[in-house]
Amino acid sequence: MQRRPVGASGLQVSRIGLGTMTWGEDTDVEAARAQLRTFVDDGGTLVETADDYGGGRAQQILGGLLRTIVRRDEVVLAGRGAPPPGSHPSRAALLDGLDATLRRVGVDHLDLWQFPAWDPRVPLDETLSAVQVAVYSGKVRYAGLVAPRGWQLATVAERSAATGNVARPVSAQVEYSLLARGPEAELLPAAEHHGVGLLAWAPLGRGVLTGKYTDGTPADSRAASSLLAGYVEARRTERSARIVQSVLTAADGLGTSPLSVALAWVRDRPGVASAVVGARDAAQLRASTAAEQVVLPAEIRTALDDVSEPV
What we know:
11 helices, alpha/beta, about 40% helix, two-stranded antiparallel sheet, eight-stranded parallel barrel
């Protein structure tokens, strides 16, 4: 996999990232082991995790794998920051949460520490000062935001500039796909202006864009027995059907998979640093990493742009 800088920063990541949201739940230790080994062998570097994935189990699994099958310096770790449950939101709580993450993963630093875009419980200056402390202590290399609005990203970027740019966000992780192009209205222009790179979450529309839900929900799919079911049902619309059909048609014409078409579209959108995918097993992940070899012709990209144009 090729690598890209995240925004205007010196941080480089693989164009496809590995999300660990299913680890500890739908993905057990052995399946996670196969995923991480496959991902790194294919040239992947960006691994995204969060405190609440599997109730903390995902980070524990990841830590065990970093000590056994891959080296720490082979991956770029992106972890989400939040005060521990039950704690009073504050700079101290944010730093305690960071220490807890580092303990679970068993590392001395995160390459990217990401925060909820706007937490009204924590004064912004306290959040920025927590990032400064974490960077100066060596526990964090860069900071980013999770699901910000355009004005929120701009506010954080401007406020951090006044503190010497140490806490300046370099990334914004947000849902972005052919089915979810909302970030283009405000967030992407703000990110481009402030030198922030997009980490596109759910680039496959949580599986909808692969076409597997076109004729209903398979009994063995995640959507059949999880919160994903509501998401899938909400996208049984005429617009979504047209988009999915266009992806299927493009895949047929290119002799590739719908997954590769949908993922390549997101990967090559302006401002995107990496498209973060999740997988149930190594075979499913390998299908995503194979999309790295797919380049969409201009006419197909234009057709997909048109059919998915936001209302």
